[in-house]
Design brief:
111 residues; eight-stranded mixed beta sheet; 4% helix
């Protein structure tokens, strides 16, 4: 079953969201043989050219990291976006998370 979560990123900041993926028996899922894909866009109907991607990393302890570098988020317009997270293995995919992503402006920067 797909879970839902709202996420917030501040423009220009490195962001990492760590997800704990569990098997049906509530133990950590070994993700070492999986890859992941996560994208976000302004509207459900936005074109592929207006889609942004998180970098992803998985491990054998059930952790899946969504990573967005601050230099990337700095170039994305502030506002609300919609995102999905998929686990991929062989020729199958499973959506495990979806939700809204808010990109907030930063009031100050450290230089």
């Amino acid at each position: 079953m797909t879970q839902y979560a709202d996420l917030t990123i501040h423009q220009g900041n490195d962001s990492i969201f760590r997800l704990e993926v569990l098997d049906s028996d509530r133990t950590p899922k070994d993700l070492s043989s999986f890859s992941a894909k996560s994208s976000f866009k302004r509207t459900y109907k936005s074109s592929d050219s207006d889609t942004y991607h998180f970098q992803t990393a998985t491990d054998s302890a059930g952790n899946l990291d969504l990573i967005l570098d601050g230099t990337v988020s700095d170039d994305i317009k502030t506002g609300r976006y919609f995102y999905d997270v998929f686990l991929l293995k062989d020729n199958t995919s499973e959506k495990i998370l979806e939700g809204r992503l808010e990109i907030m402006p930063s009031a100050t920067s450290i230089t």
